[in-house]
Design brief:
The chain is an alpha+beta fold. It contains four helices and five strands. The chain has a five-stranded mixed β-barrel with strand order 1-2-3-5-4. A hairpin with an 8-residue loop joins strand 1 and strand 2. Helix 1 runs antiparallel to helix 4. The longest helix has 28 residues.
């Protein structure tokens, strides 16, 4: 290692450039993962993609064209199971005078994050991606794509800057 006129060691610039490239690539990969999740291309990567119906968003402060943070919906399988449970409870309610009051229906719904909303009515359907098995559902929305573009572009710029630094030394 040699000491230059500025007092720095000669190998230090390479380490900085290499660390910028590695950090940039990691940031780019994170952003790419978020963009892929938000656009629906995640199905090609093996992530689970479902379309949900019977959407219920509890946020009434949303303006036109914004994103609702939390909604609840039912997948096709959940809709079939919930309809069957509602029918069972309705049939047992007819026999309430004989057997007593039936227990209430157990309705299962999925929590969906970042769903696009028009500001007035809940969407009819929402397509969402589950990144990890048993994890949360992320709606395919412009907000998710927009937030994913930030680390994607920062990572690309950081990696390019680090590569430029490596090249000039």
């Amino acid at each position: 290692m040699s000491v230059g006129a500025t007092g720095r060691t000669g190998g230090r610039g390479r380490l900085t450039g290499a660390s910028l490239v590695v950090g940039g690539v990691l940031l780019f990969a994170l952003g790419l993962g978020v963009v892929v999740t938000g656009t629906g291309l995640s199905g090609a990567l093996g992530m689970r993609v479902e379309t949900f119906g019977r959407i219920d968003c509890h946020d009434t402060r949303t303006e036109k064209g914004q994103t609702v943070w939390h909604c609840f919906g039912e997948s096709a399988a959940q809709q079939r199971a919930n309809d069957a449970e509602r029918d069972r409870v309705a049939r047992e309610a007819l026999r309430a005078h004989v057997d007593g009051v039936p227990r209430s229906a157990e309705i299962s719904r999925s929590r969906i994050l970042f769903a696009d909303h028009d500001g007035w009515t809940d969407p009819a359907t929402v397509t969402a991606t589950q990144v990890f098995d048993g994890g949360r559902w992320y709606a395919h929305s412009s907000m998710v794509v927009g937030y994913g573009m930030i680390p994607l572009l920062l990572g690309a710029g950081t990696a390019a800057w680090g590569g430029y630094g490596l090249r000039t030394r």
